[in-house]
Amino acid sequence: MSIYLPIAEVSVNIYLLLGLGGIVGFLSGMFGVGGGFLMTPLLMMIGIPPAVAVATEANQIVASSVSGALAQYRRGNVDVKMGLILLAGGIVGSVIGVQIVKILREIGQVDLVIKLTYVTMLSIIGSMMFIESVNAIRKSRKAGKKAGPVRKPGSHNWVHGLPFRMRFPRSKLYISIIPPIGVGILVGLLAAIMGVGGGFIMVPAMIYLLRMPTGVVVGTSLFQIGFVTILTTILNAVQNQTVDVVLALILMSSAVIGAQLGARVGSRLPGEQLRVLLALMVLAMCVKLAWGLVATPEELFSFAGGGE
Amino acid sequence: MRRLKRTVLSALIIAGGFLVASAAPLPAQAQEAKAQAQEATETYDVRQPEGQGKGMAQGAPVSVRLSENRNARKNAPKVVADLSTHTVAIKTDFAGTRVMLFGAIVGTAEEGKARPDLIVVIRGPSRLFKMHRKKRVGPIWVNADERIFRAAPGYYALLSSNILTDIAPADRLKKRGIGFEALQEHLLATAEGFKDLKEAELYAKAFVRLMKKKGLYRANDNGVNFTGRYLFRATFDLPANVPLGEYEADVYLWRAGKLLGKFTTKLEIEKRGFERLVYVFAHEQPLLYGIAAVIIAIAAGFTAAAIFRKD
User: How many domains in chain A?
Assistant: First the structure.
């Protein structure tokens, strides 16, 4: 059954959309990522105009992150104080990001920059996560059955030497607020440029840079993503009229269910294995995108703003 | 659902056929028309009032307009046509549609003469197109060049009753603006930012190729079918990605490489119902729309969380 999307102005199979929403929602619930970095390119692949895909995806992430954050909050897995600091950075970042996109549009290089940003970010984060979590699994095996968290007391890095320190009781941290604000800005920037929530950047940054306990990372990132995507949705609706509510609603309806199931499955699986899985997924997406940039295209010509 | 549509459409076609048939000269009328035509051929009386009226079967339920071809003799064969619908409404279940154009050749006796040829051109609303060409920069392919065609139709269907080159010489068709060669020439005339003609031609060709791939440009030299000596019909598909706006269908009547008449009718493609509501809301109240989109999303999230809370 096909459905005509009023803003995207294309006709798409509704079951395909529901399926995509469900799968991506499941992964987002499991890993605590918004899922946008999978969904946005997938939407473009099925013929949704890139501008609409990016804006609508932000709207859809609102639903999955709010429901995910709520589920995590009930389990006490959200560090609200840290979330607010990250959010402050996120707002600054997304406002700057929107300006950058505007300039890139004028030069006509927005597509290339989006893809290059994807490839760069995904390859760095993916390989970093993969190596770290594989090492962690090895270590925990050697240390016998004592599969404890990676974080050891006193394992401080340069981040912990910066000024403006603040106490985060929930995360059991006493660190400078400069790194979380910096992470927030970076995530906000990427959210605006790539049409993603930014969880795939924020989650590893929280674990490896801020050394937050793994338990609160997922909930806190969803908290921040929820608010940043609310802002992005409204900005896009006002500036570009590219938010397709019908498309978003279809994706949401299956994604929220997927996210709930994912969160459940995720809490049962061991953290290290989960991260290996996420790392592999990120790397696969990265290879796919990089190949698209390097491979000789069949058609050298294209329409600006078109889906292909 | 689809079957229902087809039934409705075929009913329309049959009804349309009857209407046209009543507008077309029936055998008896044809005789009369023939006599008149012969008379007219001899006298060349341009003021002859019946020339138009009789063949048209005055008061026919189909509203028909004859093209104003001042040079043509009144008794020359003329073409009238209508569409199975004049508005295509895009609703939630729109996945493309098929429109039929049907018509008749009227106004003179055709017996003893070779059957004329018909070309039907359906043109969508014109707009600006920006194109990119990829070039290799280091290991990656980059959209290196940007070129513009200021005005090109968003939809173009070319249907004919015969192979185009058998209907008329290529240059004559081009002069009338019929066919993809003419279209490419039009593209070149509105091209912007090109280094030279060769480059512009390359882009124009790519433009047509891309539009054909999207199903928005199409050609069929068996697309106009005669269902009798004077009646004809042509169907054309509007894909789901069809641009909105006002369309023009031109019917050209040719014989022996000469244009005998032209008839134009219009088609409007627009959003309706819920689709239109959403679209208008998004464009006229963007801030409210954005807030509504967020509220819907939050509500959806909370609903899901509430449902899953129990277990």
Answer: 1
In a domain, A300, yes or no: no
- Whether B172 and B290 share a structural domain: no
C-alpha B183/C-alpha B293 separation (Å) is: 42
Which three-class secondary structure state does DSSP give residue B130? Answer: strand
Range scoring the smallest mean pLDDT among A50-54, A117-121, B43-47, B137-141: B43-47
Residues B244, B155 within the same domain: yes
What is the chain A residue with the closest CA to B299?
A63
Do residues B155 and B212 both lie within one domain?
yes
CA distance A92 to A98: 10
Distance from CA of A241 to the nearest CA of B (A): 6
Query: Which value, to the nearest 10 degrees, does the dihedral of the CA atoms of residues B221, B222, B225, B230 take?
Result: 40
Q: Which of residues 15-44 of A touch B (CB under 8 A)?
A: none
In the block, tokens 């090895």 appear at A138
Per the CB < 8 Å rule, is B282 touching A248?
no
Find out whether A252 and A56 touch, Cβ atoms under 8 Å.
no
Q: How many domains does chain B have?
A: 2
Q: Which CATH number characterizes residue B33's domain? A: 2.60.40.1930
User: Does the residue A2 lie in any domain?
Assistant: no
- Domain membership of residue A304 (yes or no) is no
Query: Of the candidates B93, B210, B279, which has its C-beta nearest A6's C-beta?
Result: B279
B242 and B287 assigned to the same domain: no
Mutation for testing the B interface, residue in A3, A11, A116, A261 having most B CBs under 10 Å: A11
Residue B294 domain boundaries: 277-309
Structural domain of A138: 9-144+151-294
B250-307 per-position pLDDT tens digit: 999 998 888 988 999 999 999 888 888 999 999 999 999 999 999 999 998 888 777 7
Q: Judge if ipTM > 0.90.
A: no
Of A1, A10, A71, the CB nearest to B305: A71
Q: What does the radius of gyration of chain B's CA atoms come to, in whole angstroms?
A: 25
pLDDT at residue A307 is higher than 60: no
Q: How many Å apart are CA B68 and CA A213, to the nearest integer?
A: 82
Rounded Cα–Cα distance for residues A178 and B72 (Å): 83
Pairing of strands B191-192, B224-226: unpaired
For residues B101 and B151, is the Cβ–Cβ distance under 8 A?
no
* B289 and B154 assigned to the same domain: no
Strand blocks (E) in chain A: 2-4, 11-13, 165-168, 173-176, 301-303
Same structural domain for residues B166 and B296?
A: no
- CA-nearest residue of chain A to B204? A301
- CA A137 from centroid of its chain's CA atoms: 24
Gap between the Cα atoms of A62 and A197, Å rounded: 9
Residues B251 and B283 in one domain: no
Q: Do residue B304 and residue B220 come from a single domain? A: no
Residue A266 lies in a domain: yes
Chain A residues in contact with B303 by the CB 8 A cut-off are 256
CB contact under 8 A, A252 and B300: yes
